[in-house]
Specification:
The structure is a homodimer. The first copy, chain A, contains 14 helices and 16 strands. Chain A has about 425 residues and is of the alpha/beta class. Chain A has three domains: about 130 residues, Rossmann fold (3-Layer(aba) Sandwich), CATH 3.40.50; about 170 residues, 2-Layer Sandwich (Dihydrodipicolinate Reductase, domain 2); about 80 residues, Alpha-Beta Plaits. In chain A, helix 1 packs across helix 12, helix 4 packs parallel to helix 5 and helix 7 packs across helix 8. The longest helix of chain A is centred in the N-terminal third of the chain and has 17 residues. Chains A and B meet through helix 2, helix 6, strand 12 and helix 12 of A and helix 2, helix 6, strand 12 and helix 12 of B. Bound molecules: NADP nicotinamide-adenine-dinucleotide phosphate (2 copies). The site of one NADP nicotinamide-adenine-dinucleotide phosphate has 24 residues of chain B, from helix 1. Chains A, B: It is an enzyme of class 1 (oxidoreductase).
């Protein structure tokens, strides 16, 4: 160890909201533990946020208050710029870039920033001999970035999957347990403060899509490509589908799946069915889960709190201690300058599908549906027809493995038969 | 990066059995991937095992064959000594010590060695400015050492739990699914090659106890103290108890629990009941699971293959890439020279208990049992008495939370009532 390695590591923290205040609390509470584990003291030297006068439930009096994030990023008083503001443009982006240029390492919890600008930031970091760490950006307290970047370094990764937006999983599991429709539970979640200011980030699958893009880049050693993630939110998941899927032994989850195929990199974040008794199926409420499959290790499952002050701050501290210990990792597990952009492929890996539709009360209706599926090359594994309640009969179909194209084709053809009422619903059944 | 950091990292591998051959295969298969991730090539320069002529299903022709582990450990051709022989004395210990003295870093999968001599080895490594890494030593492919040492560095750890011997979990889950007695499944496991040469290491809980001692040292920042682990194997778990526990909503697992209490460090590896629907309860076959609870992160659950060629070699490769990247961590997360031996405490944390006994067909028998429990200060949560089949009536009791001392006392008193037949069985119900 050189002398510099036993000097305090000086942090500048920009953003003192849920995560920022959580980080300050851990550093204050565990100063001795952190010093013992890091081999040197961890010191906060300067902080900033929008409102200097806001009461933040932590004592900030011994830290310098920087005028703004940019000033903090370039301050001589800090070694590491800790970006906990959020947003993929504006202050977060500018200050992060400025910090790297000024020779500071960066720690961030900002998945939006990384999903949109991760590759350029990684290159900028490399050009300046700096590191960017972001354990908190994906799945909160779960050590998924470290696991993928380090623990699985001896594996070719086959597939990464995850339930990574706690709010969506809360909404889906609450709909099922309380038997409530989407709109009601969405309103509940809003009132409980579970939703982002712009709720589409959560329920539209965008936040989870950001996280998937980050995991893909590490898993497959490819340039970040968030725009190529096929994203579908949970807005069209109905309580009906949740109940019917449960009848058939499945749960509906907003599931991210990334895998490299011969056609290119598939990245998809969408509501999927998973077996009710699988680890993913059993996930309740705001808990997150990431499943990684490697050629040597097989399947690894990681589970924990995906958000909240303590878990997210815990992940930030993992990065802090890592840098304090002198560990310097390439941003996405390999030098960014060597990464190529993977061919992006739409999902083509075959899977079983769940199809729900309503049959009109007409003779031969079911036969017509079956023949559309047959013509599309889809064979039926299981089918249930319920009674004609209001004149239409709900029908549930679980198909054998088939391609998304075949399903799209069948879904487009079905209304033309004239024997179904309303739009058919189709959901992929992911093998987990 | 200095020039030395882009030179190949030269490994000497001692032990070419299941794990050693697995490591060689990964290095041969993934040379490019490993170089990209490590920033430098990974090279095997020399190897050794007992029998040079044995066919090992890998091409070793380009590596120097060292005469013995000690010669390999001291060879000028290697930077890292990879110990994959096993055993806590003899060649593994001597060569590991020699490697550290000769200025080599060490990677090992040997939990026995670490549990018995980890503290001295960590001090020896520090004195020589070397590192010892051992991801493969606990829970195979699951990245538990890295998670505890690095990812949770911002947490005071409250409790660590784990099912960490796949053979025991295989035996227990197979007993349940096939309805077979312990002895039969034990024989099956032996024939399948699942048992160590000395099976007490597995079924006696010793192997899992080694792993728990390693996790405790990291979790609580204390000197390794394997001798203080309270160990009980699965030999006395009967198919009866497995079935009865299932009736009450529980599974029986060989569960390790370490927690720091006001009285000292409790470390226990023993058959316990866990709720059937908890992540631990749902664990089937050889899969391992580790649950860590930290003050900031809450509960983290890690699950994966606990043994086998691929998963274990994957963990070894995590250490290889870590060292290749220039990462240098203190053996148990803090400098060993600063660690204190924790006061060892026998388990005193209260828990609910499962008690099974057989009542003689005598009037007032159950009342006598209840009064023994009451006198011991134990209150009953749930009780089931089954019919008098062969003259005795099985009785199952789930107690409210009580202390192990109270249970021990009651178990000692029960036979004195003269109303029970045979020995009562008692198992702890761990809150998970
Ligand atoms: N909350 C979680 O559970 C969680 C989990 C994982 C990742 N994250 C990520 O962590 C980051 C922070 O999240 P959060 O929940 O802590 O957000 P938050 O509670 O809204 O806090 C944001 C903080 O940033 C400050 N800030 C925002 N814009 C600023 C600007 N232009 N200049 C200076 N300060 C500015 C705010 O200042 P004022 O307080 O003065 O308004 C506030 O202190 C985000 O990237 C988020 O995606 C959060
Ligand atoms: N197998 C697993 O799934 C697993 C999982 C986690 C940890 N581990 C640990 O990994 C280590 C290796 O396990 P393994 O399953 O690979 O064992 P293994 O298949 O029995 O292989 C042991 C190897 O070590 C060599 N060896 C033993 N004693 C030696 C000596 N005195 N001098 C030179 N070579 C010697 C043997 O040589 P020969 O081949 O010539 O006999 C053999 O190649 C152990 O510490 C074990 O606890 C294993």
């Amino acid at each position: 160890m050189t002398a510099a390695d036993t000097q305090p590591l000086r942090l500048g923290i920009a953003g003192l909201g849920t995560v920022g205040a959580g980080v300050v609390k851990i550093i204050q509470r565990h100063a001795d533990l952190l010093a013992a584990r890091s081999g040197r003291p961890i010191a906060i030297t300067a902080v900033t946020a929008r409102d200097k006068l806001k009461n933040r439930d932590v004592d900030l009096s011994s830290y310098h208050w920087a005028a703004d994030p940019l000033a903090l990023a370039q301050s001589d008083e800090i070694d590491v710029f800790v970006e906990l503001m959020g947003g993929h443009e504006g202050a977060a982006r500018e200050a992060t870039e400025a910090a790297l240029r000024a020779g500071k390492d960066v720690i961030t919890a900002n998945k939006a920033l990384l999903a949109h600008h991760g590759h350029e930031l990684a290159r900028l970091a490399e050009d300046n001999g700096r590191v960017i760490r972001f354990e908190a950006a994906v799945a909160g307290g779960i050590p998924v970035i470290k696991t993928m970047t380090e623990s699985l370094a001896g594996n070719a990764i086959r597939r990464v999957m995850g339930v990574m937006n706690g709010t969506c999983n809360y909404i889906l599991t609450r709909m099922e347990s309380a038997g409530l429709p989407y709109e009601t539970v969405f309103e509940e979640a809003r009132q409980l403060g579970y939703l982002e200011a712009d709720p589409t980030l959560d329920v539209g699958g965008i936040d989870a899509g950001h996280k998937l893009a980050i995991l893909s880049a590490i898993a497959f050693g490819t340039e970040m490509n968030f725009d190529a993630v096929e994203i579908e939110g949970i807005e069209r998941v109905s309580i009906d589908d949740i109940n019917r899927a449960a009848d058939m032994g499945y749960k509906i989850k907003l599931l991210g799946v990334a895998q490299m195929t011969a056609r290119g990199l598939e990245q998809r974040m969408s509501p999927c069915l998973v077996p009710a008794d699988s680890p993913l199926g059993q996930l309740q409420g705001g808990t997150n889960m990431v499943v990684v499959e490697g050629d040597a290790v097989g399947q690894i499952v990681l589970r924990g709190a995906g958000a909240g002050e303590g878990p997210t701050a815990s992940a930030v501290m993992s990065d802090v201690v890592e840098i304090a210990r002198g560990v310097r990792l390439p941003t996405f597990g390999q030098p960014a300058s060597g990464l190529a952009r993977a061919q992006a492929a739409r999902t083509a890996v075959p899977a079983a599908y769940y199809i729900r539709l309503h049959l009109a009360d007409k003779p031969g209706a079911l036969a017509k549906v079956a023949s559309v599926l047959g013509d599309a090359g889809i064979s039926i594994d299981r089918m249930r027809q319920y009674g004609h309640g209001d004149g239409t009969a709900p029908v549930l179909i679980v198909t054998h493995k088939t391609t998304p194209e075949a399903v799209d084709h069948a879904i487009a053809e079905l209304p033309k038969t004239g024997v179904i009422v309303g739009e058919p619903v189709e959901l992929r059944i992911e093998e987990v």
